[in-house]
């Protein structure tokens, strides 16, 4: 490519909003020059922290001897929960059920009991192993079955969604069936694990660098444990090496411990646990046990559904309430249930408290719904896709638009998405060919599935649907942007900078994206619920609007023209008949004493939710998508390959198609890992045994579909007034991977000539696939 062509392309992609601009840190990611917290030059006198972890799943602490720990060379301080100046608690929901350091009772293997501060990280870690702790063991259970066998204790009040008359209408259905599906959890497995650095300041002040999706919560927690106000705590986040929801609450303990030690010792403190400690001491995706009953007619149209979603939540509530709530919100997937009852069971177990993970319960809810569809299809001897299409939500006025939580689905495009993918992926022809292949193949069997996605966008806690942004324009025309969202590799900073560049019609190179900090934008929500671009993009747009209104009024007065004659053009401003370069225009505004700074704010309209009543409008809109996946399995070993995946996904009018495509691809592969290779396993002593890459298997590059076709629905545009009419992209495509599990199920079902539903649990590891094949042989 010659230089002129490159320059032409550079001009083409510089249209700030809706353009495929590269991620602002992409070149740093690939060259290793992007600074993460462990790359920040270490302050003079930095000390390192390590955790002292419980080796019991459930026990009273009878005695602690830390003398050998304190005597280890290089150790500066050892502290326990009794040394916490404020409240010894890091719970994110005010429940006070999650101690920073356990004092009298441990409730999971790997729970922090004390912390060691030493001159080196190695010394701190070695010293932490020397503690002598006496326990009085108590009964423990680590899974859903154990919790149910012990009375089903809950970590938070359950929720029920109810619409219609399922109790009386279920018996009226022409056909009925019951079933159960087990859905495994998932480790976040970030590239950058949890880490925090605390630097003490004057008086009660402390600065914390934390790898967190929720700087304001870190600020609150640090304030609580130190017994100081939030205005004394500054939390900074430039970027994370992955978040996926796990850094919404799980960074609390590391930031709090670092801050306590920093203020106590007057020195900077760093906490960076090893990978195995990180995996043992921090929460994961909830695993579920779903019991369902469905009534339907001879065509496969659903009449009634009754389902219970039991979840392994761990020892404390954390975010299990909203996670299990969202599972119920998505237990309809894309389907209309005339009569429905859905119940959650957030069960207490003696394991680390599970937490947010991409999809936030939605994937588990949706997977349960897709199993119901699959059951109906096998019971009737039909293609599951036909059952899906028959039960889709309808258009307004059809009488088939009301969700189990009584929200109308007003923006439904799922039928169009599925039909377009069905055609472009040649689903029907390929399915027929696969059935023929399976009839003639002795050991290798194939499967294909096309599954839909409908995912609600907004925090279900209404108050979280707000955001702020701070925008400055300097005299030279350069722009400074800060907002409450955090960058975890998803391109949020780039997208919001595009919004700002578009607002002022300048090249994005003029916009400086700065680290998220509680000192600039206060009271922020977590970068979660796929709402980062929606919320922070609109807040930045609001700040730009304020500044533009001032600039327009200034220009209209100075050049004596109507405000309508002041037009922002690419890198210049037209005022009447003249055009002024943007930097010159800004300088003139400065000398006229025009305020060139603004704090923007946005709150999502229309949403409300009554959890007790199970009614409301928790979502501003829905994002849609569909995936068609083909697999091959070896019936002798259970091993399999993902041969091809075709995806059509709805992101509205994309803010950045290149970034959005990357999000769809990454979400699909991560979802595929959850449903196939990633398996969490605790032994009979409550110890997590899959706590390292040697025993926990995330997908490799070689596991991706051999043919991987991903398209955005370019015709889609959000019917709601979101930024640029775009839609969220972070979580919805994760559930496209359900097509992989469904395709594996079809391949297994071929062994019994598709007569019965294989009821393949997740994750569908080769072992589970092989066991399912053996079951089919006995049908």
Automatic annotation (TrEMBL):
Q: Which Gene3D superfamilies does the UniProt record give?
A: Aldehyde oxidase/xanthine dehydrogenase, a/b hammerhead, Aldehyde oxidase/xanthine dehydrogenase, molybdopterin binding domain
Q: Which SUPFAM superfamilies match?
A: CO dehydrogenase molybdoprotein N-domain-like, Molybdenum cofactor-binding domain
This protein is called Xanthine dehydrogenase molybdopterin binding subunit
Keyword set, alphabetical order: 2Fe-2S, Iron, Iron-sulfur, Metal-binding, Molybdenum, Oxidoreductase
- GO-annotated molecular function: 2 iron, 2 sulfur cluster binding; iron ion binding; molybdenum ion binding; xanthine dehydrogenase activity
Which enzyme class? oxidoreductase
Listed Pfam families: Ald_Xan_dh_C, MoCoBD_1, MoCoBD_2
Q: Which gene encodes it?
A: xdhB
Q: What InterPro entries has UniProt attached to this entry?
A: Ald_Oxase/Xan_DH_a/b, Ald_Oxase/Xan_DH_a/b_sf, Ald_Oxase/xanthine_DH-like, AldOxase/xan_DH_MoCoBD1, AldOxase/xan_DH_MoCoBD2, AldOxase/xan_DH_Mopterin-bd_sf, Xanthine_DH_Mopterin-bd_su
Q: What domain of life is recorded for the organism? A: Bacteria
Q: Where is the Aldehyde oxidase/xanthine dehydrogenase a/b hammerhead domain?
A: 31-139
Family assignment from sequence similarity: Belongs to the xanthine dehydrogenase family.
């Amino acid at each position: 490519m010659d230089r002129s062509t490159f320059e032409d392309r550079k001009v083409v992609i510089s249209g700030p909003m809706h353009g495929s601009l590269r991620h602002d840190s992409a070149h740093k990611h690939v060259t290793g020059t992007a600074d993460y917290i462990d790359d920040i030059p270490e302050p003079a006198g930095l000390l390192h922290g390590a955790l002292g972890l419980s080796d019991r799943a459930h026990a009273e602490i009878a005695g602690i001897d830390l003398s050998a720990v304190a005597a280890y060379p290089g150790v500066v301080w050892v502290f326990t929960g009794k040394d916490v100046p404020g409240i010894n608690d890091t719970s994110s929901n005010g429940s006070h059920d999650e101690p920073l350091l356990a004092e009298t009772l441990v409730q999971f293997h790997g729970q922090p009991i004390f912390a060691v501060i030493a001159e080196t990280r190695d010394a701190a870690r070695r010293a932490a192993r020397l503690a002598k702790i006496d326990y009085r063991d108590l009964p423990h259970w680590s899974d859903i079955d154990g919790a149910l066998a012990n009375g089903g204790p809950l970590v938070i009040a359950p929720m029920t969604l109810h619409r219609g008359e399922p109790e009386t209408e279920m018996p009226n259905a022409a056909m009925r069936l019951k079933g159960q599906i087990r859905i495994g959890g998932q480790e976040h497995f970030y590239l950058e694990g949890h880490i925090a650095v605390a630097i003490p300041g004057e008086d009660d002040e402390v600065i914390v660098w934390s790898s967190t999706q929720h700087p304001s919560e870190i600020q609150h927690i640090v304030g609580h444990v130190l017994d100081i106000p939030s205005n004394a705590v500054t939390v900074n986040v430039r970027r994370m090496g992955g978040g996926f929801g796990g850094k919404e609450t799980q960074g609390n303990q590391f930031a709090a411990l670092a801050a306590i030690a920093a203020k106590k010792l007057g020195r900077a403190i760093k906490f960076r646990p090893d990978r195995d400690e990180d995996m043992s001491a921090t929460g994961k995706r909830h695993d579920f046990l779903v019991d369902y009953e469905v009534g339907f007619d001879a065509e496969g149209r659903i009449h009634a559904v009754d389902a219970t979603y039991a979840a392994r939540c761990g020892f404390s509530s954390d975010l299990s309430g909203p996670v299990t709530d969202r599972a119920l919100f998505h237990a309809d997937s894309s389907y209309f249930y005339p009569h429905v009852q859905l119940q959650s069971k957030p069960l207490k177990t003696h394991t680390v408290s599970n937490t947010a993970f991409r999809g936030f319960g939605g994937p588990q809810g949706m997977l349960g719904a897709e199993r119901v569809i699959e059951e109906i299809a096998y019971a009737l001897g039909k293609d599951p896709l036909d059952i899906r299409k028959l039960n889709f939500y309808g258009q307004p006025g059809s009488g088939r638009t009301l969700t189990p939580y009584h929200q109308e689905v007003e923006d439904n495009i799922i039928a169009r998405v599925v039909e377009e993918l069905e055609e472009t992926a040649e689903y029907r022809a390929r399915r027929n060919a696969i059935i023929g292949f399976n009839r003639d193949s002795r050991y290798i069997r194939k499967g294909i599935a096309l599954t839909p996605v409908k995912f609600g966008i907004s925090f279900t806690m209404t108050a979280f649907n707000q955001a702020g942004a701070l925008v400055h324009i300097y005299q030279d025309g350069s722009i400074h942007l800060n907002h409450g969202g955090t960058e975890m590799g998803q391109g949020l900073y780039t997208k919001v900078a595009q919004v700002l560049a578009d607002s002022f019609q300048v090249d994005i190179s003029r916009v400086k994206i700065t680290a998220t900090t509680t000192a600039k934008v206060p009271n922020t929500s977590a970068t979660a619920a796929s709402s980062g671009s929606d919320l922070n993009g609109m807040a930045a747009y609001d700040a730009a609007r304020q500044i533009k209104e001032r600039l327009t009024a200034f220009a209209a007065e100075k050049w004596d023209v109507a405000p309508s004659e002041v037009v922002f053009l690419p890198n210049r401003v037209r005022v009447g008949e003249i055009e002024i370069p943007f930097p010159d225009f800004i300088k003139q505004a400065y000398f006229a004493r025009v305020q060139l700074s603004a704090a923007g704010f946005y709150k999502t309209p229309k949403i409300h939710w009554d959890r007790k009543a199970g009614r409301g409008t928790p979502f501003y809109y829905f994002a849609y998508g569909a995936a068609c996946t083909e697999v091959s399995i070896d019936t002798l070993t259970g091993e399999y390959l993902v041969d091809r995946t075709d995806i059509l996904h709805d992101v509205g009018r994309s803010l950045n198609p290149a970034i959005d495509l990357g999000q769809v691809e990454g979400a699909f592969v991560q979802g595929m890992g959850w449903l196939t290779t990633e398996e969490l396993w605790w032994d009979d002593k409550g110890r997590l045994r899959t706590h390292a890459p040697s025993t926990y298997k995330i997908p490799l590059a070689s596991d991706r579909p051999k043919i991987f076709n991903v398209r955005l629905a370019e015709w889609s545009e959000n019917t709601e007034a979101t930024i640029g009419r775009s839609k969220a992209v972070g979580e919805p495509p994760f559930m496209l991977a359900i097509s992989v599990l469904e395709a594996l199920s079809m391949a297994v079902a071929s062994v019994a000539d598709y007569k019965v539903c294989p009821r393949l649990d997740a994750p569908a590891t080769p072992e589970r696939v092989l066991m399912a094949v053996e079951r089919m042989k006995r049908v």
